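Continued from yesterday's entry.
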Amino acid sequence: MIMIVGLGNPGKRYAQTRHNIGFLVVNSLLKKFSFLFEKSQFNTKYSKGLINNVKVIIVKPLSFMNKSGFPIQRISSYFKINLSNIIVIHDDIDLDFGRVLIAKNRGHGGHNGIKSIINSFGSKNFIRIKVGVGRPREQTNITNYVLDNFSKEENKKLKTIIEKSIYACTLIIKNGVEIAMNLCNTRKQNFQV
């Protein structure tokens, strides 16, 4: 079984913020693959189903981002899912807005949600789909920037970015992480969605 985790902060206040791109992607995954309902357990919401005939559990931690590692570790332990079979989808300010990159076995790069996961598992051997939200142009506090809603211009591109992220996710499930990285991590990112 593969576990797909979308990172975000719970509550309406954060629903459309840059930091919640992981939640937005997994919400779209749930719809696209007709996962019927979500259950709550271990301070997460989750749903099980099939993607490309592979058993998948889609998870949204209900804790705040910087405490998301513990609920993810608990639910993966309960379902006996190896860390190497976990895909985490999250925002990345060091990537241009809309760029999607796949990484595995990398450090947290200053992302508190990823730092929490690494600390909870004692390892960084999981797959990440990093979704670029860009850096602010002005001298803005980074925390305020990622916790702010998408701009009007960004909202126009959001559907395509979510589709690119879902495509990256399904490529990993179908072909494995190495092939998916070769196809997705190109400079031009002209892969089909």
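--- second protein ---
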Amino acid sequence: MVVTGKSVIINGTTTLGKFTCDLEQQGRSDTVIFHQDHSHEIHPPVLDIALEVKAFGCGNKMLDKDFNHTLKSSEYPHIRVVVDHFFHEGDRYYSSLILKLAGKELYMERLPFLMKGEKGAKSMEADFHLNLSYFDLDPPKKFLGLLKVREELTILLNLQIL
């Protein structure tokens, strides 16, 4: 399977509402190799995606600045997503995934991916939750603490495929 584009959407909640920050990468193709089962064989990473923190768009400059400050983009300019092992069981797809953010790693052993779309416009999507405190990150607070970002974020990883 050939990955022709990648996008990451980060959804969060504040005391006043919701926000979305996203990044899309097009142009570079990667080949994904599926394994028949979730064995413990060692395979090279299937995908190693470097996402520039400053390239995420959150809708306005103030949110972009807060996003970059929260994720310490001056110290850690990239988020890395390493898809370590793709496998197929029955009609479902799974992956082990390593998320490297702000100097820490989060390992997910069995992240489910859903196949979406029809011929010509297919994608594989996975979503998961993460807590900023796991990465020792402090959510931004504004207006003397009246506006605060909640620590839990939802991440949507989308791989456009041929």
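The chain has one helix and eleven strands. The first strand starts at residue 2 and ends at 13. Will compare against the first tomorrow.
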